[in-house]
Amino acid sequence: MIFPYQQQSRAPGGSLRRSLYSAMLLTLALCIACVVTFGQIWHSSNTSERPMSSTLGTVHAHQAASTQSATYAPVANQVSGQQNQSLNAYISHMTQTQKIGQLLMLPVYTNGYNSALDQPLQQWDIANVIIFTQYGGALMPSTQSGLAQLAHDMQAHANQRLIVATDDEGGTVDRLAPYYGSTLSPGSLAATGDTNKVYAQARQAAQRMLANGINTDFAPLADVYQGGAIDQSRMFGSTPGDVTKYAGAFLDGLQQNGVQGTLKHWPGLGSASANPDNGLATITHSQAQLNSIDFAPFRALLARQPGMIMTTHVMVPAYDANKPASLSPVLINQVLRGQLGYQGVVVTDQMEAGGLLQAMQKQGYSDPSQAIAEATVQAILAGNDIVECPMAPDRLAAVVNAVTSAVQSGRISQDRLNQSVQRILALKAKMGLI
Predict the structure, then answer these.
(1) Which pLDDT tens digit goes with each residue over 138-159?
(2) Based on the domain organization, do 51 and 145 belong to the same domain?
(3) C-alpha angle 396/413/348, rounded to 5°?
């Protein structure tokens, strides 16, 4: 594993005095641990809106301690039997609204916390947000301190602990650049040939995000550039090997420094005929080409345990001729989870994208609000865990209503709902959010 920490050497022991001293320290440490554990359990039992078992709290403490070890070792997204029991106990205390809220991500573009955020975060219990600092308009929040305050206030007002995400790829897609200055693009970083520089930029990004209350980055891109419509500078290379090498260093730089990374855009946009934000693109590769090129970096980087993988709105007829990848059970459940073996959190790209709206038009949905609402239900059924909701209040309300109705009717079964909730909570436990 690259970039290991240096392990400190220990002075040799041997004397009785040193042994007795060590024993005294161990006893004191155990006493302190008991007091802390008792305090955590007491706090958990007295926090009605966020019920948590003491067992899961102990697991979190163990995981947090593990991250301080001398050598980086990825923590598996899969949960142990004990964790699984604790997560199930946690879920059993959740309301249906809270469960649905875990599957939704609220886009936020505002100068500061305001009453418009109360309904999503408190009435609908939405448990994830993505911050946009520029969304076709002025910089908001206008200052770095305002950004930090916004993230803090959202966590304080929300009924459930939040994943707070943003896009910090470097280069042209860097939401923090207005506050800290521009950074190198993935293409420029890869051109240096130095994984340490890639890692260093990601580490700096992680430090800046954490300082502003952001705990998740929608980066790095695992797309292999093949002459498609997406800006080449956003990608780490034109071969699976280069992308794996440099995207892996970026992912390590984030996750070894406290921020969850996200591999995107599954199943790969390197040869896409259009940017899915603007139109419905098609990947014309055969299954053999997809497996050897487009899927290869995602497959290789699973060993680094990415916090999430993001799906995109692109047609891949070699696997599914009818639905875009973001809505395709074949590409998510059968290929990403079944063949590649990924069992972590899957998040969609933005649901107001032009490519998705065009795909839904082919299904007969001409009204954007209805199209996005139906697409959200289909995305969950396809295997996505978190859906990046629309920003417009009426469209957001339509999404919440559609998912709620689908759960109440049984179209989204309780087993399917709980499956995603468990994956999301396992990630949040790893992050120390619950």
Answers:
(1) 999 999 999 999 999 999 999 9
(2) no
(3) 40
